[in-house]
Amino acid sequence: MILDSAAALIAEKGTADLSLEAIGEHACVSKTLMYRYFGTLVALLKALLNREYRHLRTKQLEAAENAETYEDLVRKVTRAYLLYIAERGLIIDRLQAYPNVTRDQNPTHYNREPSIEYFSEVTAELFGMPLDVAIAATEISFGLPAAAGEFLVRSGMDRQMIEDITVAMILGSVSGLRNDMLGRQLKVKPPSEVLSLPEPKKATGQ
Question: Residue 176 — φ and ψ, nearest 5°?
């Protein structure tokens, strides 16, 4: 209830005049209990930001459970991210901007390692690439939804269009990487092994 009240005030008024007392009043909780639960405003805001990240990751995991193809997996996870950012991005941005709450962190960093491991294993298996390459590709591509979410909040562009662009970039990068690796590894035969050139005709005199 306290965190819900903090989120509501941040969405409505920002963080400039935010205080434990104001949040407690909004939540109908005494000042004493507010300090007992959180101690400081920064501790409360960190707890709120952590909850926002956890809720977002839960939405993405739920979306991944229903995916049938690789494209479906990428699309559903990306869509879950963008939908959450469209709804809660303002709160997250304002929390991230508050001093000492976070430093240069975006929602994709939360509980990142298990997600990287899952996507890397899927990518390596489906596209036939070494696991270390799949890990690198996954780590790098994880930045795309975060960039897409920031662009969504800043630009006001149609969410579906941003989703389509992000999914195309992720799929294109993985496919391009696979094709590039195949092109580097596949051996070709020299022409002498596959072509049979006709012998030159001998000149005949009259």
Answer: -65, -40
